Every structure is written in C-alpha cells, then in structure tokens.
Predict the 3D structure of the following.
Amino acid sequence: MKITLVRHGETEENYEGKILGRKNVLLNETGRRQALRLKNNLSALHYDLCFTSPFIRCFETALVAVGDRVEIIRDDRIQERDMGELEGRPVEEYNAFQFWNYDKNRSDYGVEPVQDILERCEDFLNEIKEKYPDKSILIVTHSGTYRALRHLIKKDPLKGNLLDGKIPNGSYEEFEI
C-alpha cells in the first residue's frame, strides 16, 4: 500500500500566526497556489482514493490537487486537533512541546490530548489498510493529524515528545506500508 500525506494549503489564520484547530476556514491565495503546485507535483502519480478531513481547507486542497481524477472521501477521524480555548490565539501562547508529550497527555485549556489524536488516526489507518491493502491512497489533512499519522505509519515509539519538526502548508510525503 502506498500512502501520500498532504497538509492543506495556507489559510489567513496560518499566515497571521494564529492557532487553528477546528475552525472551518477557506484557503487564502497562497494556499490556492500551494494546492495548484500540489496538483502539478502529484499529476504523474496514480491514486485510487483520496481521504480528506471534513474541513473546507483540506477539501479545497484535495479538490484542486486531485479532484478531477480521483474520488474524495471525507473522514472525521483525520480532522484537526481540537485546540479548545487556544483556538484563534497567537501561536506563541501554545507550548507545543507540552501538548505533544505522549507521557504527559495534556488537555489543558480544552486541547484534545495527544493520545486521543493518535487513537483516532490509528483507527483510520487500520481501516484503510484492511479495506484497501493494494491501493494508492492520498490523505489531505492538518499538521496535527499529519504528525500523528506519520508517527503511526513509521511505527515510531509512542513515548515522550512526539514533536518532530515543522510541517509546512502544502507539503507532502510518500510512504510504502
């Protein structure tokens, strides 16, 4: 099975440095250009299915990138992390190391615990591996769920700090599993 993970294109909230969880917002102009760049980068690749978060920024990215050639299926399990009271606040107010520590599993300010994100992403991955074992799957999601899915696909140890670098808007990675 081949899986390609994609982070949605940029939004105004991303550009302004605001914490963006489950607020349903559109791509900005840069995000639309990133989606077109994805279309060009992925055009030579075959996909059997595309799964996307139910949020418009992911669906819009998927629609531009592959919507003319593959079915797009929305799945709630790959929606962004619930950022609780931190939604819309400046990113400087978010201690990512604290909220991405598997052992601490913090839910301060109503932020969805990291273990919960990993659990729903693992459920999603297990289902697609069972249903589509020989398929090529594109997954368009958010930085938080992208990070969780990547840890699960790579079978990284789930302990301590799971924060491993930035995932830029419009970026993608391919995996064979």
Summary: The chain has a mean pLDDT of 96. Residues 2 and 83 are 30 Å apart (CA to CA). The helical segments are 12-15, 29-42, 56-66, 96-99, 114-131, 143-154. Strands lie at 2-7, 49-52, 72-74, 136-141, 172-176.
